[in-house]
């Protein structure tokens, strides 16, 4: 056992030697002319493993072209190490690095410095080395001949051998050995040449603060929680350790999945993957982007052989579930980018399932600008003694220094006009506008696009197809004068270059969202501006929260004179285009719903919104009906009255129990159910952001409803979903029947138009008739007067028909009851008669009935009654139609019971009369028969 090897670089020509003390052979590969030749040499060394090299030599031999990296990456360090360096140029750090590395892992250390150029470095090294024995330092400055050096090594061999121990997978460096404050450039880190080349190539030279703090710890195999301001370079802080981990694995068990990077959105995963490719371009392991939007099978074929995967949670989980040969058994490192988001409720179920598929023994890195400190989260991830690194904890502000932040207070109905005025005033800018939900994004994008502000207008939301999303992302990335309307899928992590403005047209749901949104500008030492638009009702609470989060923000006033009022223009547009009008209606409803579902009730109060003015500002003449608001109000009233009752019996001190406490009390339950639902959603849609329109609203709800609006409406969305489900199951309503009838009159062979995103454009004349849409149309409140009138006529007809059927049914039931009664009475009477008959006929011969000739009175009675019933039926069925109106009145009055009892008495009399008559008939017949005989 034992090896000597080395790499010398001399005017970019490299030489390698390898020595196996067991075989007593020295393999020499001198001065390959190119990197390829060098790699070929290394390959041939590897080839010799089985014959000439053993154990440690094997590992080292593999990395012989770069022994330091070999040692670093495999964790297998030969104690007899000979490093040959020419001591020039970039070898300085190498020597230091070698000393640190080998000191921490070797008990025997030998170093030869070629040419002796860097005697200072040699001396430094000697000082380090001399602290522990036995260590040897050789200067090769006097060694003219390579073979001489080999002989020297051979002489040492027996001595070295006695101290030969290998520490497998030694836990890297001592924390103290990488002092972050002393790191001035990436080369100061003990990184592989390939990574350093990649960094250099991408023009990354000086590490940022978070990189300085985290990379060293991560290289030491520590679990790290990294937090720093937006745009401060967290991506590289985890990409570099990932590359090094993979490189380290390469010599041993680089098989299958070794590193996993999870991002909350597809765009962010895509961006991270690009950085990984850029910095890792000189490495030769496989990497894959797993975000959905492509056939699963296509990914499944490659995923099992991919060493590093950048993914979104839903898609990854789908592979765990459905790709049979995919496993994470060899996983070494797990990274959660935007960790607080990934670990929040929306992803809870998916993440729990993913974590269950990962080996417990792994390194975990968590990064975010708003890092989680939740012990629960950390416990879920089974972190081992994690280090919390907050690069800007003591900074005066939690947002970037070069970011100028202001806010404007304006009424809800002025927002679009304000936006338009803003865009017209900033035509040569790159602007990112955030809105609450995707239906708003769609509508505002469409309106602004039609009004042509003189710049490219784009939109990005979760309802878009994957290809379109990538297209928009790239276009916004590329262009300089452009506005992008987006939901919060664009709020985290995205690194668009040179964004001048971030405008938050809708208030963010919390301060964390604010920080991430504004963080899309003023990235990495650039400047940027952020404008927050607040409603008067939102101002106080939101500004207070922002200030308590160390966010510097100033109020600016709107110059009303410079505002261009768009409402009349929008009304004209909506009047002439039903598609736009429908978009406006949806935007209106979803905005209100999202405000209703916001958890922070101090900031968001849907009751205070002027919905009428808002609908007008969107171009809607009539405000769409919003059922959920009515329901919510009813629930609030119910809750108020019940809580009023409750509190009356409570101690006075309980009165201080505020709403927030109450809602937080109910929080876990609501959260749980929300998150469950969300995750069912994942299962169907692959990942969190991979949802359709409503899905995305669902995603918002996940967080917003977490606040548990009230105990009564604990899960409003769910209630609504239930309602939707019920409405699907509900017996057909008259309106639905009427619409169906209308539909039948629509001529077939119609044309369907599709928009850019491949969605069918709905034509008002070809009304869709799904139950959901019917309800939507219902809520529209008779916008299309003609259609509404027609529908009302049809409804009227159906109404009458239904009413007639109802009356008929009622009559039928009454008749049946009457018959039952009659039958029962007759049966009673018959029983009495039979007794009599038995008495009369008691003396007769039992075998031969002398009265056989007499018709059976029961049969006779039954026949008569059947005839009567038939005629009665006919009579009453005719009567029913005539009596509809009177019946109607009867329905709701005490007259009903009176007339019923009257008719009942007369019926009884009639029946009695009939039965007396029957008896007389029978008696006469009996007498006649007896006389006849
Ligand atoms: N060491 C570096 N030298 C130069 N530029 C860097 C360095 N590190 C990162 N950058 C650049 O800084 C920008 C922001 O980096 P990154 O996206 O990693 O920030 P972040 O902290 O992850 O932001 P966020 O919190 O928004 O996700 C990127 O354009 C990146 O290329």
From TrEMBL:
GO terms for molecular function: ATP binding; ATP hydrolysis activity; RNA binding; RNA helicase activity. CDD domains: DEADc_DDX10 (cd17941), SF2_C_DEAD (cd18787), vWFA_subfamily_ECM (cd01450). The lineage of its organism: Eukaryota, Metazoa, Spiralia, Lophotrochozoa, Mollusca. It comes from Pomacea canaliculata. Keywords: ATP-binding, Helicase, Hydrolase, Nucleotide-binding, RNA-binding. This is ATP-dependent RNA helicase. Belongs to the DEAD box helicase family. Residues 8-156 form the VWFA domain. It comes from the Eukaryota.
